[in-house]
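Schema walk-through. Below, the input block comes first and the output block second. Nothing else is stored per chain. Lengths vary across the set, and this one has 576 residues.
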Amino acid sequence: MAYIREEEINKIRAEADIVDIISDYLALQPKGKNYVALCPFHNDHSPSLVVSKERQIFNCFTCRTGGNVFSFVMKYENVSFIEAIEIVARKIGYNLHIDHQVNENKALKKEYEMYDLATKFYQNNLNSTEGTLAREYLKSRGINQDIIKEFKLGLALDKKDVLYQLLSQKEFSLNEIEGLGLVNKSGTAIFDTFQKRIMIPIANLNGQVVAFTGRIYQNEDTAKYINTKETSIYKKGHILFNFANAKEDIKKSHEMIIVEGNMDAIMLSAKGIKNVVALMGVAISPEQIAEIKKLRVKVIVMLDNDNAGESATLDVGDKLLTNGIETKVVRLSGAKDPDEYIRQYGLDALKNNLKEAPSYLDFKLNYLKSDKDLQNITDVVKYIKEVLHSLAHYDDLTKEMIINKLSENYHLDKEVLKQNLGPIKPVLKPEGPKVETSKAKTKYDIAARAILYAMMNDSKYIRIYKENLGYFKNKSERIIASEIVYYNNNHQGINMADFLTFMEGRDDIYPYLMEIIHENEEQELNTDEFNNWIAVVIKELKKAEINDLKKQMQQEMDVNKKMEILAKLAELKKEV
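--- output ---
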């Protein structure tokens, strides 16, 4: 087990010229201010991999693989993040100090003890007079004292270094505390990672606290959530949130509900649905699947009602099904997540959805139909090909059932269908330099991504964003913006290559992050243009608000409320 401090990682990254490192693997050719090469990550026939010396990143214009020097080595050498750092350090002659614990049990005991102390400290804070507002917030969300105790919820105070002082008094060293992500250091200043946040402990599969999620509770102008980064005892892919608490209820009910966020799991538990766990992001790992398989129960996947949640449902469902786990799906409409759905439609409505959840295969077959006109022969052929392609990793019985269904519905010979079961090129993902594979981007899309790109390059754009916008309509954009603001606040500035290191492991966001960089890499940044992008986003947000108000008008029966909506509409139309 090994751990390398973020400060040292960034130092290695700064000293390692990405052009020099990639030159050890590929034949780079200068092209303008960048370098190009044949991409090793797909079957490349003309140089589509671009390496930027200025920004210290690489990007493939075809397969859209990208990142910084560590990302390249990880993917090329097929090694872990820590191993990639070691390789880069050796290449530049950096004397890397890695803490390889000889007696792991002794080391882990100390680390678990630190998290146990931190958990109790945060719990005491929540129960103190200083925790009154946080307790009121939790109460307003339907979280009572029993749930607070069940999940060991706590509070990080609005103070600079009280946790650090406590742990120091217990004779833990600064390196040990910082190594577990409980404090940050900037120059000589030391400050607690979590301040003025409700604390949600994250336990491993045995119930030992190994990380935290910190959530704002007073609408502060900062990232909604802050999460512990991976450490020697915390690996996201090895954990299912609430697993230790929910395990016995899962066994009794023979059913596990998987949700997207830890607050979703807490809120469902508060409503009496105890057999629920949450993913640590939107991806599911082999380690998590292995733990689920041991329980021999069916799984209901109930992720957020947005595009990212839908994509994740397909990914998670495929992986569960191909591992022989009976899988069902709930897609909640009219609300973004289970908590909001219960507040709008009631607990019984959600329970009914869980009871009537369709199988994952039925969900997937309907999903593949969703963008097709099945009265059109071309779309029917496309649909059948996509279904057959999706069966590649399923067992023979499942394949037989689907083929029978297709044969009956479309009067096709079963043998013809079976002949097409082999690897089929995905229809919707052609290889080529074209970035978009579906609908064209709107003015909003272009402006929002350009804003995020500029924010990754210079702190002044972060300040302008916070002062003039502070919000995006899409969840992925909001998450990236929050992470950028958080990084900038805690590192007194931002550097794109270092920010990518910071975001390493965020499988839910990293691909979109690279897409943003890919689309804006040639962008010349200036304040006037940035303000224009801000104006475009504000205008589009107001247009969306106008459309929402128009819908409210159509449904509203109260005359006085109609007048209020009309007044708002008039004001917004003037602004637009």
